[in-house]
Task: inverse folding
């Protein structure tokens, strides 16, 4: 009888453990401080949402939407894989986006899963109809009190262009000294972002390494293999910082371990 009870307790523990690891939303806060941040943009708050796939957080994504709203963002960046190519359900994925555009302006770039569906045009059209700003190898310039900064976005390399070519196209008309924030799905090409002189990069794709080993980091990530270098948090090289979101959902591997779904908050600060 004791063995049976222990077995039941163990199963219940595993179920609760997996549920918490895959549904407990957390907010990770970071500050980007630089002399290049225009004074009029000091305190600007960006909230990053990445790799939703087909994850659900409450009825009609109400928990996710409420959590983002609580952070009081100036802008929301979606860095790809808002859908999952293995379980493509655009209407379900758009539930979250519909709530996010009611909060503030939303900017979006493709992930590899959108490309894998071969329905990029359909996805772009649906997002545009909701008011999302799509950055397909292009930039937009924000202006406050005569000062400017750029939001740059590139598509996924599965679209057939190299990251270098997409960055060149997206930044072609921007002054070299302008502060640039980049939305790019893949973190494994960090050196390319550094070489291009990007100031702040928002990326995802790695799912936090799927399984996070306490004290060591992520176990495996697409494009990086075992014990990947770029899975979560902020990375620095030269003038460039890259924040990698652990993301929200899963794809081929259905569970996260020690790797809670994450919303990223990044505040700009003038040094």
Result:
């Amino acid at each position: 009888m004791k063995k049976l009870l222990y077995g039941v307790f163990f199963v219940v523990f595993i179920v609760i453990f997996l549920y918490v690891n895959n549904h407990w939303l957390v907010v990770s806060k970071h500050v980007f401080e630089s002399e290049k941040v225009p004074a009029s943009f000091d305190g600007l708050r960006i909230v990053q949402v990445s790799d939703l796939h087909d994850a659900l957080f409450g009825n009609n994504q109400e928990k996710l939407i409420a959590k983002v709203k609580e952070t009081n963002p100036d802008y929301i960046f979606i860095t790809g894989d808002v859908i999952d190519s293995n379980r493509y359900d655009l209407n379900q994925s758009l539930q979250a986006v519909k709530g996010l555009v009611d909060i503030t302006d939303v900017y979006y770039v493709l992930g590899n899963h959108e490309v894998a569906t071969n329905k990029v045009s359909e996805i772009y059209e649906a997002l545009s109809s909701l008011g999302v700003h799509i950055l397909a190898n292009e930039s937009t310039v924000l202006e406050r009190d005569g000062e400017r900064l750029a939001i740059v976005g590139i598509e996924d390399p599965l679209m057939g262009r190299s990251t270098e070519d997409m960055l060149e196209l997206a930044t072609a008309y921007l002054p070299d000294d302008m502060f640039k924030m980049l939305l790019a799905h893949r973190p494994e090409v960090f050196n390319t972002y550094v070489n291009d002189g990007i100031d702040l990069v928002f990326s995802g794709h790695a799912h936090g390494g799927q399984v996070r080993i306490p004290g060591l980091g992520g176990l495996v990530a697409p494009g990086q293999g075992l014990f990947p270098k770029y899975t979560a948090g902020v990375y620095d090289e030269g003038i460039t910082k890259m924040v990698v979101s652990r993301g929200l959902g899963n794809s081929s591997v259905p569970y996260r371990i020690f790797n809670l779904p994450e919303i990223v908050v990044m505040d700009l600060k003038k040094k």
Remarks:
- The CA atoms of residues 80 and 110 lie 5 Å apart.
- The chain is about 25% helix and 30% strand.
